[in-house]
Design goal:
Elements: E1 17-24, E2 27-36, E3 39-45, E4 49-50, H1 57-69, E5 81-86, E6 91-92, E7 95-96, H2 98-111, E8 114-120, H3 121-133, E9 139-144, E10 148-155, E11 158-166, H4 171-180, E12 191-195, H5 199-210, E13 227-230, H6 233-249, E14 253-256, E15 281-283, H7 284-287, H8 333-347, H9 362-385, E16 388-395, E17 398-409, E18 421-423, E19 425-438, E20 441-445, E21 448-457, E22 463-465, E23 470-472, E24 478-481, E25 485-487, E26 497-508, E27 519-522, E28 530-534, E29 544-548, H10 551-577, E30 581-597, E31 607-622, H11 623-634, E32 642-643, E33 649-659, E34 662-675, H12 679-686, H13 691-698, E35 704-712, E36 729-735
Parallel strand pairs: 1-5, 3-14, 5-8, 9-12, 12-13, 16-36, 17-18
Antiparallel strand pairs: 1-2, 2-3, 2-4, 6-7, 8-15, 9-10, 10-11, 16-35, 17-34, 19-31, 20-29, 21-26, 21-28, 22-25, 23-24, 23-27, 24-26, 27-28, 30-31, 32-34, 33-34
Helix pairs in contact: 1-2, 1-8, 3-6
C-alpha cells in the first residue's frame, strides 16, 4: 500500500504530526505521532472513548481527539492527516466495507480530518510484536467485543486466516469454536493475545481461557498449554502509528514519548504501552477520499460556504465539544466510568476558550462538575434497580395419551383408584329457547282441468259407468267422470250408442287442458269397442310450486336448538359446580319438557319456528381427586426431564352405560408435557444480558421454540439489557401452540 501519497509533496521525514485513530465496536482511541529519524514517536495517547450506536461515533471520536490533544505542546498545531486502525470484521477483500467506510467519511468530514490510509488491528499488533521482539509472531490474536469475537491466526508473522464468532454465555466455548475452524494436521500457536478497549474485562476473559482443558477439545490442537497475554489498549495506537510510519519512511520501531500530566492543569494521567505493526493497508483513494485534488471542483462537492476549512498547522485549535453522555450497558461498570471520565476531560478548562475570555473559576467549575456527576450516578442507580422484565419461554410440548375405563358413582363418597371408581354428584338445570329458520321443503298446488266428453258404445250390450270411471287420454293423462252414466248398445256398426258426461282431471296442472275431439280409452273396455271424445276444449288446469314445511325442516331445527340449549346448560352447570369441581360435559343427559312447532309438515310457510324446553342433568367430580387418578394413569409414560402439571391435562369421555346414578365411561386422558426448568437459575444466567445473548442461552432448553422478552421501562441501544436484579425478572413457561 502507498502511504507516501498523503504527503502531497512535502519533504520525506519532515517534522509533522499525524493522528492514529483506532476504531473498534464500542470504543475509539486516538494518538498523535511523528517520524523522528528511523523511528516513530507517539507523543500523546487518549483514554478509550465509548460509543454504542452509530449516532454516537462522531462524539466519541471527538472526545478521544480532544483528550489526546490536551498534551500537545503549544507550538505544535493539531494534526489533520490520519491513519485509521480498524477491526477485521470491517474489511473484506482488502477494502473497508461500504457501511463502515461511510462512518469513516463522516468522522473525517465533521472533525476536519484528512484520511491517509487504514490498517487492520490484528496485523498491526503482529507487526508491532515483531518490532519489539525481533522475531515474526507465532500467536492467535483475539479481539473481544460485546457481540462478536474476532480471531486471527499468525504463523511466522504470516496471517493464516480470520474468523468471527458470535458471543454466547461462555467466552471459552466461543474461542474454542473459532479455533476449531482452523483445525488441521498442524497445531495452533500456543500463544493467545487478547485485546479490546476494556482492560478490566480482558483479565476475566484471560482467567476463563486459562481454566480451559485444551487437551479435551477434540477439534482444537496445541503443542502445549497456550500462554494467554493481554494487549494494553494503548498498544493498538502505537501499532497503528508504526504501520503508518513504516510505509511513509520505512521506520522499523516505535516508542512512546508521553509526558506525565499535571493534575492542576486538568490533564489525564498517561500510561506507557507496547504495540506491534501491520503488514499493510490501503491509501486514501482506496478509502474513497480524493488526494491532491480540489474537491470543490468535483461533482456534488459542497460549496465553500458550507465546507469547514481545515485549520493551519500552527493555528490555535478550538476546544472540541464533548459528546452527549449515555448510560452504561449491563454490568460493564468499567465502560460506565470510562465514559464519565472522557466527558469530564472535555470539560476541564484549557488556557483560553475560543472566544478569548478567561476560563471559569475552579470553584464554579467544581460545583457544576459535582452536580453533573450526581446526575450521572443517580441515572446509573435508577437504570440498575428500576427495570423489570417478563421473559416468556415457549417450548414445544411432548404429547402423551392413555385410554382407560372409569366409573363415576353418585352413590359412594370415597374413591377407589385401583378400581377406577370416583365419587360424583348429579347436577340439574332447566333451559328453554326459541329458534326460527327458513324452510327448505316445496309443494305444488293448483286446479284440475274440466270438460265434457261423449261416450261411444260400439258393443251389442248396454254398459253402465260408475262415478270415477277413469278415461285415459294422450300421454296417459287420466280423467274421471263426475256422474254415473248408462250407454245404450249400438244400433248398427256405424251407429254406436252414446251418452254425454262431465269429466275432471285426476291431478292438477295445465298439461290436462286438452283440445276438442281428443279421444280417450274408457275404463277397462278396449278402445275399439268403447271410447270417448272431447266435445270442446278442456280448461281450468293450473299448477304452481310453493315453500312448505318438510320433515327434514322440523328435524334439523330441533337438533340445532337442542345443541344450543345443551351448550347453555353446560355453561350453567360448569359455573355452578365451582372451581374445585370438574364438570363431566360428556355426561349431559337432556329430557324434553315441551316442544312446539309453528307449522305442521306440508303447511305452506317460508319460515319455521320451534319453542323447546329441556331438563338437563350431568355429573361433577372432585378436581383434585380426578387429577390424582389422571397422573396415576399417565405416570409410566412421563419421560425423564419432563414434568406433568394439572393445568396441562386434557380429557374426553364417551358414555358407555348409566344405571341408577352409576356412569360407566371410556376416558381418554392426554397431557402436553413441558421440560422441568429451574426458574431461579435461568433468571440468574440471563440477568444483565442483552436480548440476543439471553435468547441464545434459552435456546439450549429442551424443546425450546421461541422467547418473548419485554423490558419496562423501554430502553434503547445497548442499554436494553435484562435487569441485573434477578428478582426483577419474571420467567413464564408456556407450550407453543
Amino acid at each position: 500500500m502507498d502511504f507516501k501519497s498523503f504527503l502531497s509533496g512535502e519533504k520525506l521525514g519532515a517534522k509533522e504530526h499525524y493522528w492514529a485513530l483506532v476504531i473498534e465496536p464500542g470504543w475509539i482511541q486516538a494518538g498523535i505521532w511523528e517520524i523522528a529519524g528511523d523511528k516513530a514517536e507517539v507523543t500523546s495517547v487518549s483514554p478509550p472513548a465509548a460509543w454504542e450506536v452509530e449516532e454516537e461515533i462522531i462524539g466519541a471520536a471527538d472526545t478521544a481527539l480532544s483528550a489526546a490533544v490536551q498534551n500537545l505542546p503549544e507550538d505544535i498545531g493539531e494534526p489533520s492527516k490520519t491513519v485509521f486502525g480498524v477491526p477485521t470484521s470491517w474489511v473484506s477483500e482488502g477494502q473497508i466495507k461500504a457501511e463502515h467506510l461511510e462512518k469513516i467519511k463522516r468522522i473525517c468530514s465533521e472533525l476536519s480530518l484528512e484520511p491517509s490510509g487504514f490498517v487492520v488491528l490484528p496485523e498491526a499488533i503482529a507487526h508491532h510484536v515483531k518490532s519489539e521482539e525481533g522475531a515474526p509472531l507465532n500467536a492467535v490474536v483475539i479481539g473481544v467485543g460485546d457481540e462478536n469475537i474476532e480471531i486471527s491466526v499468525f504463523k511466522l508473522g504470516n496471517l493464516v486466516g480470520n474468523s468471527v464468532v458470535a458471543r454466547s454465555v461462555s467466552i471459552a466455548d466461543d474461542v474454542a469454536e473459532g479455533l476449531a475452524r482452523f483445525s488441521g494436521s498442524e497445531a495452533l500457536p500456543s500463544r493467545l493475545l487478547l485485546y479490546d478497549g476494556k482492560e478490566g474485562e480482558l483479565e476475566e476473559v484471560r482467567q476463563n481461557l486459562l481454566k480451559v482443558s485444551w487437551e479435551e477439545q477434540e477439534k482444537v490442537k496445541f503443542l502445549h498449554t497456550p500462554k494467554v497475554e493481554i494487549v494494553d489498549p494503548d498498544t493498538k495506537v502505537l501499532a497503528t502509528a508504526l504501520a503508518g510510519a513504516s510505509e511513509i519512511a520505512n521506520v522499523s520501531s516505535v516508542e512512546s514519548t508521553k509526558k506525565e500530566y499535571e493534575e492542576e492543569e486538568g490533564e489525564i494521567p498517561p500510561e506507557t504501552e507496547n504495540v506491534g505493526k501491520p503488514d499493510g493497508g490501503i491509501n486514501a483513494e482506496d478509502l474513497g477520499f480524493a488526494i491532491g485534488e480540489d474537491v470543490a471542483k468535483k461533482p456534488g462537492a459542497p460549496s465553500p460556504e458550507t465546507t469547514q476549512a481545515l485549520p493551519t498547522q500552527n493555528a490555535p485549535q478550538p476546544s472540541r465539544p464533548a459528546p452527549p453522555a449515555t448510560l452504561p450497558k449491563g454490568f460493564e461498570v468499567g465502560r460506565f466510568f470510562a465514559r464519565v471520565k472522557n466527558f469530564l476531560v472535555s470539560l476541564l478548562p484549557t488556557k483560553t476558550i475560543q472566544t478569548g475570555f478567561p476560563a471559569p473559576g475552579k470553584r464554579v467549575f467544581a460545583l457544576g462538575l459535582g452536580f453533573f456527576v450526581f446526575l450521572i450516578i443517580l441515572s446509573f442507580v435508577l437504570w440498575w434497580y428500576l427495570p423489570k422484565a417478563v421473559v416468556s419461554i415457549y417450548v414445544s410440548p411432548k404429547n402423551i395419551e392413555q385410554k382407560t375405563d372409569v366409573v363415576f358413582d353418585t352413590t359412594v363418597s370415597s374413591p377407589d383408584l385401583a378400581s377406577a371408581v370416583i365419587p360424583a354428584q348429579i347436577d340439574k338445570t332447566e333451559v328453554s329457547g326459541d329458534k326460527t329458520k327458513s324452510t327448505t321443503g316445496t309443494k305444488v298446488v293448483g286446479e284440475k282441468a274440466k270438460g265434457s266428453v261423449k261416450i261411444r258404445n260400439g258393443t251389442a250390450s248396454n254398459i253402465n259407468l260408475a262415478v270415477g270411471t277413469i278415461l285415459a287420454g294422450t300421454n296417459d293423462l287420466k280423467f274421471s267422470i263426475n256422474s254415473a252414466a248408462s250407454v245404450s248398445a249400438a244400433l248398427s256398426p256405424s251407429e254406436p250408442g252414446t251418452a254425454t258426461v262431465d269429466v275432471s282431471a285426476v291431478d292438477i296442472g295445465s298439461q290436462y287442458n286438452l283440445g276438442k275431439d281428443e279421444t280417450f280409452k274408457v275404463g277397462n273396455y278396449p278402445k275399439a269397442d268403447v271410447d270417448a271424445v272431447a266435445l270442446s276444449d278442456f280448461s281450468g288446469g293450473t299448477s304452481r310450486e310453493i315453500s312448505a314445511v318438510s320433515e327434514d325442516d322440523q328435524k334439523g331445527l330441533e337438533e340445532e336448538l337442542t345443541a344450543e340449549l345443551l351448550d347453555k346448560a353446560k355453561q350453567s352447570l360448569s359455573q355452578e359446580v365451582g372451581e374445585d369441581k370438574l364438570f363431566i360435559e360428556d355426561s349431559l343427559t337432556p329430557t324434553v319438557g315441551s316442544k312446539s312447532f309453528s307449522n305442521k309438515v306440508g303447511d305452506e310457510a317460508s319460515t319455521l319456528k320451534l319453542s323447546l324446553d329441556l331438563k338437563v342433568s350431568g355429573i361433577a367430580v372432585d378436581k383434585k381427586m380426578f387429577y390424582e387418578f389422571a397422573r396415576e394413569t399417565l405416570k409410566e409414560k412421563v419421560p425423564s426431564g419432563f414434568v406433568l402439571r394439572d393445568e396441562q391435562l386434557k380429557n374426553r369421555f364417551v358414555l358407555i352405560d348409566e344405571n341408577k346414578g352409576v356412569y360407566e365411561m371410556e376416558a381418554v386422558i392426554a397431557a402436553n408435557l413441558l421440560p422441568e426448568l429451574k426458574i431461579d437459575e435461568i433468571a440468574k444466567n440471563i440477568s444483565g444480558r442483552s436480548s440476543v445473548v439471553a435468547e441464545r442461552y434459552l435456546s439450549s432448553i429442551p424443546g425450546f421454540s421461541r422467547a418473548e422478552i419485554k423490558i419496562k421501562p423501554p430502553l434503547f441501544g445497548k442499554l436494553k439489557v435484562l435487569p441485573r436484579i434477578t428478582k426483577n425478572i419474571q420467567i413464564e413457561v408456556a407450550a407453543e401452540r
